[in-house]
Amino acid sequence: RALDAGADFVVAPSFSPEVVRLAQAADVLVIPGVITPTECVDAWALGVKMLKIFPIGNLGVDYFASVRGPLDHIKFICNGGMNGENAPQFIKAGAVAVGMAAWVTGDGTWPLETIRQRARIVRQGVDAVRSGQPLVTV
User: Fold this and answer.
1) Domain of 79?
2) Position 132 in a domain
3) Which of 3, 23, 76, 125 has the fewest CB atoms nearer than 10 Å to its CB?
């Protein structure tokens, strides 16, 4: 449906060779979700250059670094369980991006100031990573 609607890219929750092939046939960037090294290698074999490793937060940065180590030719987006404290650690470990919308915005009932505060924490983490300064901890 995303392709029919004119999507420029597709981010999937899991790795499906069929979804990858459909997106590639439509010349659309596809970023499948993976969690195991086998899924990473299988996706790479189909020509995927960027993967969403999900859910990674509870597995930790050491697991991500272990997966990424021999697969450093693949770009990874870390998603699932990211927060203001661990997201910068995943970036330092080699993630090109992190997804943390749920941590920033909550369930839709949070006060706006809470969302702003969390957005500031994210910004501080991004700035620290970019500048090479020590990371801000929450």
Assistant:
1) 9-102
2) no
3) 3
User: What DSSP character marks residue 32?
Assistant: -
Domain total of the chain: 1
Strand order in the sheet with 33-34: 33-34, 50-53, 75-79, 97-99
Inter-residue contact 6 to 27 (CB < 8 Å): no
Confidence band (pLDDT; 50, 70, 90) for 37?
very high
| DSSP assignments along 51-117, one per residue | EEE-S-TTT-HHHHHHHHGGGTTSEEEEESS--TTTHHHHHHTT-SEEE-HHHHHTTS-S-HHHHHH
With a pLDDT cut of 90, the percent of the chain lying above it is: 68
In a domain, 69, yes or no: yes
CATH of the domain at 31: 3.20.20.70
Please indicate, yes or no, if residue 65 is contained in any of the structural domains: yes
Across the range 120-136, mean pLDDT stands at 73
The answer, yes or no, to whether residue 8 has pLDDT greater than 50, is yes
